[in-house]
Every structure is written in structure tokens, then in C-alpha cells.
Specification:
Oligomer: single chain
CATH topology of the largest domain: Phosphoribosyl-aminoimidazole Synthetase, Chain A, domain 2
Distance between the termini: 34 Å
Strand content: 15-25%
CATH superfamily of the largest domain: PurM-like C-terminal domain
Radius of gyration: 21 Å
Shape: globular
CATH class of the largest domain: Alpha Beta
Number of strands: 13
Mean pLDDT: 92
Low-confidence stretches: none
Length: 341
């Protein structure tokens, strides 16, 4: 069967039976992934890893819509897993890719998503080493769900939340809120998506550029700011460190169009999901070096200091506005922004 005729088809239940159509689907997936897939069709991947510690993470992705302006669920799946490995100090090496496909999904849509998986894996320098495909009936899923599991190798000491210290400066690598605004605009037809792009990106290359500061222990910890937004990350760190965190409202990197759209949508960018933003906890005397390294990378050009870890024992996050008024940032309860990553 030609690739063109296959692209004109839709997923059917027989693609999940394990018979001929399943084989054709698997062959299609392998062909699109190209050299980012190891090509071995054994029941388990057999992988070389150096002696020592590895990092392992898994995540599932149910993005709505699965294809959007400047990205799709495939790009998010690779970035999300790669970034989770990189922020703990591991070098991402291998990914698995599992797909749940709804009957009726256009194979052309699957093709685009697989191309994003391939291209993003190439950028991140990781290999797809194993996978799985399941097909469910119409209405039993929403087009496509993905799961990726990642393995990374430690070449340095792991970075943990409990390593943050009073006095650490809180650095953000770039703007917040763009991913949420972009997807909501696409979903609701608001027209912001051409001006506010998703920030989805693999951050391991940018993190590698911090090597000197990380090796010396000047970067104490970092997290990618994803579901739950900046607020969730800050509350998580406050709880782990047992210290109150403070941030400056005026320092928050929120683009004008994102702020305008957020006001229209009634959402707070501090709670918005992101897919290409890093929060770092940095020793005060290393802030200049870390900012310079971030600014040298395309994904870190908007890096800024937004606050610090205080000496005060306790759990909480406070924000000071331009007039000097301090308010407590409450931890978000409930699902304000579902299915954005």
C-alpha cells in the first residue's frame, strides 16, 4: 500500500487486532519515526547504560485539541518527559511511546503527530526504544492519548527540591501563561493564537548550558513549570523546604498579549500550564552567571529573577506588588484549566 493512500484512511478497530492492519500501522509508525527509533522489534528494549544511577519518569498526555497552532500532543509528550529527566540533573537518553487511538482518527493527523515526536526527539537527542498501540471504539477516547516513559543517566549529583536554601534566588527561564492562552484560544476560536504561541520545547539543551553552575552546586534545584503553573511549583518547593517563598509581581515575565487574553478569559497566568519554562533555585552569588547562560540559549532569552527563599520557617508563597503590598498566593484547588498538557 502506498503512503499516500494510507494517509487518506482513518483508524479502524482492526488496526488494534494484532493482525495485518496492526502490522501495517506499526510499519507506518516506524517509517515516520525514522532514525529516532532503534528499529528493534523485540518484546523489550535492551539498552546500554553506564554503571551508576539512572532517572526514570512516565507521563500520560490527553491534550485538547491534540493538534494546535505551533505544536501538538506529540511534541508535548516528548518535551514533557525529556524535561522531567533533565531538571533532576539526568541526561535524557531513551523514551518509550504508547498510543491509544480512537477509531475514526484520520491517519493524516497521526502522521503529523508522529513527525513531531520524531523532530522533537531529534532536537532533544533521545531515541524511541519501545512502543505500543491500542485502538478503542468511537467515543471511548478523544482522538489520541499518548504515554511516554523516559530513562536518563546521571553524570552528576541529582538535584532535589530539599536542596534549596534560604537566600536562594528564584529564576524563571521565560514567560509564563503562553501555552495555556494559545490552546484556549485555539479551542474557543478567540484569535489570540497567532500572537501568543505555545512555549513547548525540550529544555535539556538549555540546562546543559548551565553545566558549570550545576557542577559547582550553585544551582540547587530546578523544575519545569507545567500543569498547575508557577503557583503549583512554588507551593511544592515551599512545602519541601519548609520555608516561605516571596516573589515580586512586577518581575513576573508575562507578555502583554498573554496578560490581555488572560484577563479576557478570567484566568491568572500564575496558575496557567506551561511546557517550556524552567524555575531554578540559585545561590545569590551565581545569579549573574546563570542568567547569562540562560540568555545565551534561544529558550532562555527571557530569563529573570522573580523572588527568593526566605529565612522564615513555614509553608506559603507571598507576592509583593509595585506599591509594596504583600498578599498570600493561595494554592489552586480544583481543575481551573483541564487538558492543556
Amino acid at each position: 500500500m502506498s503512503t499516500k493512500s494510507f494517509l487518506d484512511q482513518k483508524i479502524v478497530l482492526d488496526h488494534g487486532t494484532g493482525a495485518r492492519l496492526s502490522r501495517e500501522l506499526v510499519e507506518f509508525v516506524v517509517d515516520v519515526l525514522g532514525d529516532v527509533y532503534t528499529g528493534e522489534m523485540e518484546d523489550s528494549a535492551m539498552l546500554p547504560v553506564p554503571a551508576g544511577r539512572i532517572a526514570m519518569t512516565t507521563d500520560s498526555f490527553v491534550v485538547d485539541p491534540p493538534v494546535f497552532g505551533n505544536g501538538d500532543i506529540g511534541k508535548i509528550a516528548v518535551c514533557g518527559t525529556v524535561n522531567d529527566l533533565a531538571v533532576v540533573g539526568a541526561r535524557p537518553e531513551y523514551l518509550t511511546l504508547a498510543m491509544i487511538l480512537e477509531a475514526g482518527l484520520p491517519i493524516a493527523t497521526l502522521h503529523r503527530i508522529l513527525e513531531s515526536v520524531r523532530d522533537t526527539a531529534k532536537e532533544a537527542g533521545v531515541k524511541i526504544v519501545a512502543g505500543d498501540t491500542k485502538v478503542v471504539g468511537k467515543g471511548e477516547a478523544d482522538q489520541i492519548f499518548l504515554n511516554t516513559t523516559g530513562v536518563g543517566v546521571f553524570h552528576r549529583e541529582p538535584l532535589r527540591m530539599t536542596d534549596v536554601r534560604p537566600g536562594d534566588r528564584i529564576v524563571l527561564s521565560g514567560p509564563i501563561g503562553n501555552h495555556t492562552v494559545h490552546l484556549l484560544s485555539v479551542r474557543e476560536g478567540l484569535g489570540f493564537e497567532s500572537n501568543v504561541l505555545s512555549d513547548c520545547a525540550p529544555l535539556n539543551g538549555m540546562i546543559d548550558g548551565l553545566g558549570g553552575a550545576i557542577e559547582r552546586g550553585a544551582v540547587h534545584s530546578m523544575r519545569d513549570v507545567t500543569r498547575g503553573g508557577l503557583s503549583a511549583v512554588l507551593h511544592e518547593y515551599s512545602s519541601a523546604a519548609g520555608r516561605v517563598l516571596t516573589i515580586e509581581e512586577e518581575a513576573l515575565p508575562i507578555e502583554f498579549a498573554t496578560r490581555m487574553a488572560s484577563d479576557m478569559l478570567g484566568i491568572n497566568p500564575i496558575n496557567a500550564a506551561n511546557e517550556g519554562c524552567l524555575a531554578l533555585f540559585v545561590a545569590p552569588d551565581a545569579v549573574g552567571e546563570v542568567l547569562a547562560a540562560l540568555h545565551a540559549h534561544p529558550y532562555g532569552r527571557g530569563a529573570v529573577v522573580i523572588g527568593e527563599v526566605t529565612e522564615r520557617a513555614g509553608k506559603g508563597v507571598e507576592m509583593t506588588d509595585a506599591g509594596g503590598k504583600t498578599t498570600t498566593i493561595e494554592e489552586l484547588q480544583g481543575a481551573e484549566l483541564p487538558r492543556l498538557c
